[in-house]
Amino acid sequence: MTCARCVHYSVFAVCGRLLDLHSAGRRLKEKQRIFTSMPFSNLAQYNSGFIKGQSNTRKTVKMVRAWYHDGADNEPRSHPHMMEPCQFISLEDLKKKTGIEYFQFDADTVDSNEDYQKLREKRGYKNEDCVELTRAKLPNYDEKMEIFYKEHLHEDEEIRFITGGTGYFDLRSAGSDQWIRVEVTKNDLLIVPGGTYHRFTLDANEYIKARRLFTELPKWTPINRPDGDKHPMRVQYLRDMGADAP
Ligand SMILES: [Fe+2]
């Protein structure tokens, strides 16, 4: 026979569990909201701090960083290649100079993130796959890394969502033609417009894992410089950026 006190405690425990689940759900939604579509200027506020309103979870948000490449091509590409002193570029300026778009999503919860799904729908990214760049898993590792580091452009956008590891995207400034290095880490999503000259390298950790998003069929054939100079997508890109064609 069940006593009244046990029933009372059981109901209390169930209610408590439901409240816990409700709070957890609210915390997850809040986390997703903060991670989603954060403008560059707002992201800067989170650079060294914790997500607001989450004193219990205290999750640190790392901000993507960009700087002018020092041009020291005699040193390993995996080095940061910062000038002395380093010339960092704000994310607003990065967009103005290269056209790249930046988003941040929590990679651990991204599949249930409504804003990530909305971004995919809005941009027509119907498909995605996953790549892992590391010596152990990528056949012909050195050869592939050479291809990635050759300055090139694509007809389509290049979209990369980093789910683990680190690396460097180098992007040519549309106006000055200077290299700008963007350090990517977990949770960063970059959209590199078609027609942007760029290259990629791993850092000294030699590991990155990323989702590659695309519309119908991926068009990732690299068009190396200078072959891409007269490509209609390059001409269009420079026009969109308000820069003169070479
Ligand atoms: Fe590329």
Automatic annotation (TrEMBL):
The main enzyme category here is oxidoreductase
The cofactor named in the record is: Fe(2+); Ni(2+)
Q: Where does Ni(2+) bind?
A: 152, 154, 158, 198
Write out the catalysed reaction.
Answer: 1,2-dihydroxy-5-(methylsulfanyl)pent-1-en-3-one + O2 = 3-(methylsulfanyl)propanoate + CO + formate + 2 H(+); 1,2-dihydroxy-5-(methylsulfanyl)pent-1-en-3-one + O2 = 4-methylsulfanyl-2-oxobutanoate + formate + 2 H(+)
InterPro entries listed in its UniProt record: ARD, ARD_euk, RmlC-like_jellyroll, RmlC_Cupin_sf
Where, subcellularly, is it found? Cytoplasm; Nucleus
Asked whether the keyword Nucleus is assigned, the reply is yes
Q: Which UniProt keywords apply?
A: Amino-acid biosynthesis, Cytoplasm, Dioxygenase, Iron, Metal-binding, Methionine biosynthesis, Nickel, Nucleus, Oxidoreductase
Q: Which CDD domains match?
A: cupin_ARD (cd02232)
Which family does the similarity line name?
Belongs to the acireductone dioxygenase (ARD) family.
The name of this protein is Acireductone dioxygenase
Organism the protein comes from: Elysia chlorotica
